[in-house]
Amino acid sequence: MRKNLSTFILCCLTMAAKSQTASVEKSLFGIQTGFLGVWAHNETKLSNQIVLRSELGLDSGIWGGDYYDKTGFLMTPVITVEPRWYYNLNKRVAKSKRIDGNSGNFISLKTSYHPDWFVISNDDVNIISDISIIPTWGIRRNIGKHFNYETGIGVGYRYIFAKQAGYLENKSETTLNLHLRIGYTF
């Protein structure tokens, strides 16, 4: 009888330990680079599945064609605030997959502002400030202990402050967020 009772208690304790809810990291700092830019970010835990990602970086652009004598390249600053919901953490834990470093699938509301502070370019160009709000779906996975990759896609709204640059009226348009990044977490 004692043997059966001990086995039962041990099984209950094991199940209780397994039933804890998965959680995102308390705070996460890192850098990422992609095809068109470089960014430093912080993710701060708001709940077990929600983080607030703040990001400061340089977005890049390339242009050229029949009307330009050369191919142009520019880098301009960007400030981003992005609440993220990592919705599949419990499922990943149940399948014995990694969730460290906030490895999982996410849905976010990416809000980015491009200020007219400076431009790094091989041509004489001016940047017009804009703000965008883009609902995004994405994934983040870890490679080893510190490296990760991330991809996401979303369609949203962008407002361009054209009056500040001398145009008659501001402009709004639909915009796309398509990113593929590799990064390092500290």
Write a structural description.
It contains two helices and nine strands; from the N terminus they run H-E-E-E-E-H-E-E-E-E-E. The chain has 186 residues and is mainly beta. The chain has one domain: Porin (Beta Barrel), CATH 2.40.160.20. It has an eight-stranded antiparallel beta barrel with strand order 1-2-3-4-5-7-8-9. Strand 2 (37-45) and strand 3 (50-63) form a beta hairpin. The termini are far apart. The mean pLDDT is 89.
CATH architecture: Beta Barrel
Number of strands: 9
Average pLDDT, rounded to a whole number, is 89
Structural class: mainly beta
Strand portion: over 45%
Largest sheet: 8 strands, antiparallel, barrel
**Spatial arrangement of strands, main beta sheet:** 1-2-3-4-5-7-8-9
Q: How much is the radius of gyration in Å?
A: 22 Å
Please write the CATH class name. Mainly Beta
Number of helices: 2
Helix percentage range: 10-25%
Give the CA-CA distance, first to last residue. Answer: 52 Å
Secondary-structure element string = HEEEEHEEEEE
Shape: elongated
Low-confidence stretches: none
- For the record, the count of structural domains works out to 1
Quaternary organization: single chain
